[in-house]
Specification:
By secondary structure, the protein is α+β, with helices and mostly antiparallel strands. The protein is 25% helix and 28% strand. The strands form three sheets. The protein has a six-stranded mixed beta sheet with strand order 4-5-6-7-8-9, sandwiched between helices. Strands 1-3-2 form a three-stranded antiparallel beta sheet, with no helix packed on it. A hairpin with a 2-residue loop joins strand 8 and strand 9.
């Protein structure tokens, strides 16, 4: 299933926030946008990420969630790593937004999400492709492949070996 607009009228953000979408949808400039549904490799990778990041989150005062929003565009990454807070809805930039590529994800769709995360102030975006077992780290400086075999951040230093994800 590819990402597409479900409702071509401008939807007020309040309506988006009080509506449950199944599957989850994103809110982009007043439009409800369907997300690509992940298949088993995508779901497995999400599970691995949640398992391994949860194990290190507490040491850094962080938590792992499956959703995140921004003030004007409500994007939903596959996994979010952020500072622990009492916010019922995430309104501060997470430390890491993680996207696991599905077979239907396009570069245009992913680049739009990356740009939104960076504009929101997310310092690190990890892109993981289960199909070819490659991963990328995106920052304001650009996108680089994790050829070292480790997804990493600085301040705080977080490392996640790709070997644990692709076992």
């Amino acid at each position: 299933m590819s990402s597409q607009h479900l409702d071509y009228r401008i939807v007020p953000v309040e309506e988006y926030l009080r509506t449950n979408y199944d599957p989850d949808c994103e809110y982009v400039d007043g439009q409800i946008v369907e997300r690509n549904l992940g298949e088993k490799p995508h779901s497995r990778m999400q599970g691995e990420l949640i398992f391994h990041l949860t194990a290190i989150a507490e040491d850094h005062g962080m938590e792992v969630l499956l959703e995140q929003v921004s003030p004007t565009r409500y994007r939903i990454p596959d996994v979010t790593f952020l500072r622990i807070s009492d916010e019922p809805i995430v309104t501060s930039p997470p430390f890491i937004c993680i996207e696991v590529l599905s077979k239907d994800d396009t570069m245009v769709y992913m680049q739009d999400k990356i740009d939104d995360y960076l504009r929101f102030g997310v310092p690190y975006i990890w892109i993981i492709n289960p199909a070819n077992k490659r991963a990328y780290v995106v920052t304001r400086a650009g996108m680089v492949e994790a050829t070292s075999g480790v997804l990493e951040t600085k301040i705080p230093a977080i490392s996640l070996p790709l070997s644990v994800l692709f076992e």
